[in-house]
Amino acid sequence: MIVVLLLTLWGCARPAPPPATLAPDLGKRAVAERGMVASAHSLASEAGVEVLRAGGNAIDAAVAAAFAIGVVEPMMAGIGGGGSMMIWEQRRGRVEYVDFYATSPAGASPAYDRSVHPARLVAVPGAVAGLLEAHERFGRLPRGRVLQPAIRLAEEGFPTGALLARTIEGDSAKLARYAEARRIFWPDHRPLPAGERLVQPELGATMRRIAAEGRDGFYRGAVAEAIVGVLRETGNPMTLNDLAGYTPQWRRPVCAPYRRWTVLSAPPPQSGMQVIQALKLLEPHDPAALGLPTQSAEAMHLLVGALRVAMADRGAVQGDPAHVRVPAVGIVSDAYAAERRSLLAAHTAPARVEPGDPRPADRSRPSPACAPLEPFAPAAGAVAGTLLGVAPAPELPFTTARLPPQAAAAPAASEDDESTGGETTHLAIVDAEGNAVSLTFTQGVYFGSGTWAAGTFLNSAMNLFSANPSSPNAMLPGRFPASATTPSIILEDGRVRMVVGSPGAARIPPAVTQSIVYVLDYGLDPMEALRMPRIQVSAASTRVQFEQGVNPEVIAALRAMGYGPEVMPPTSLYFGGVHLIERRGRWWVGAADPRRDGEVRGY
Q1: Strands 543-547 and 564-568
Q2: Which residues are catalytic?
Q3: Per DSSP, what are the bridge partners of residue 546?
Q4: Contact, 530 vs 585, CB < 8 A?
Q5: 480 pLDDT exceeds 60?
Q6: What is the CA radius of gyration of the chain?
Q7: Distance between terminal CA atoms of the chain?
Q8: Which residue in 588, 308, 253 sits closest to 430, CA to CA?
Q9: Which of 48, 221, 168, 20 has its CA nearest to residue 600?
Q10: pTM higher than 0.85, yes or no?
Q11: 322 by DSSP, 3-state: which?
Q12: Average of pLDDT values for 290-308?
């Protein structure tokens, strides 16, 4: 009897089994107990997990995976680009956010002509400085060990994947501009085909210099001189002083409660406020009771409305908070959500969603869940401006009449251009201690500007600025550009519940919002959430784009409301590439977007 009782108790005490595996996963979904990396390439994910197994933490793994992704996905990211990273430290219960986007050089101005030569699109690269500074503050392993997987991939090579081969062939003119790049990506006057080994010795040498010398191995000396030399020939005003003086900005994330969760997302000049506002607009509703948007016209109507309103509000105010007062706190507040929610009540689609005025709500106090995390504050811009030695950030003249229509609807024309979509990359990382990193990384458009120096392509970030001097995203000296990127972390009971982000230009905030809703509100497995047909809206028109898989009755209902539904191909790069990790009990469940080549690795 005692033996039976002991066996029964032992059986009850056994840990729950891992979440069931969906088939076929093909490496795109993983379940692990200790650590996990989700990225757009299996080799980058393996680089991150290699570092975790070697005793590194989530920050070490994120930096390793980021340098590696720049090797294996050079059309999307690399040391010539920039990005941003959110870090959750479980032991301290602390969140940090570093913006290392490429910045405008000291010689930039609204009159600067970007059209003369593609190299004039290059802004001061921030990737190396940002990744190394994050590693120095929060990493555990030596810098050389963290860069080792990327150096190995560059020097020993790897088989070219289908997506990389396609972009190499498609961007032949860009890649042919510089002899060194042409030799690597178009050997023997033909595009490198899928399966053939891509070896990048010059990139490996540059990363070895970075591993040995730190940021000075990139921002000073031979590498810096090579970058400035190739740009000077085209009239790009970047100088050696611009490179040596590049400084990543540590910002506070925007934060708001959403139901029982706490959402942390990218602060200005990135677009986390757009994600959080859309969620706040949906908060009083019960999406699960309405049914999936692909099957329920009511659920689709609410989702489309929330995405349109959030897009309009973000686009009207977005800019560098060191120079422009951005009312992000007001935009994500309960009071402003209650005011703007009325736009979702009507079942007739407005021809255009005009931005509201979140300034009266911008002094809202942070919620009890967010206050201990010290989120982005109304005075953040003014304080940053003082620290940077510039005038305090002015109050934004809140009227869209001063802005051209595209400036009122989006941070930059290039990010809302329909020709963009696949560019940029995202990584999600967690470790056994509960630390997490959400990191979005970009060259701009495919292969950036196409400019080649020191073994890498240089970004096209100057295209993210507005030439309109009255825009909050004006192209002025030393500014961080507005961007749609939204690396996000969601907490539940003081622990990470989800790490999520995406590439995809203007499709990023809607893609991230939909992924959050599908996982948290509908309870879908991360892989099921990413397989859901994705939608994209416009604040300036009634067009709604959606992937194949939406019920025809829902499409008919949208049309009856005055929307212009437009069916897109299924699983298109256009709709981004979300990488997502969710905690389920003691297990991490990760998923890589089926729209891309990415895979998840865990242990």
Answers
A1: parallel
A2: 424
A3: 535, 567
A4: no
A5: yes
A6: 23
A7: 39
A8: 588
A9: 48
A10: yes
A11: coil
A12: 97
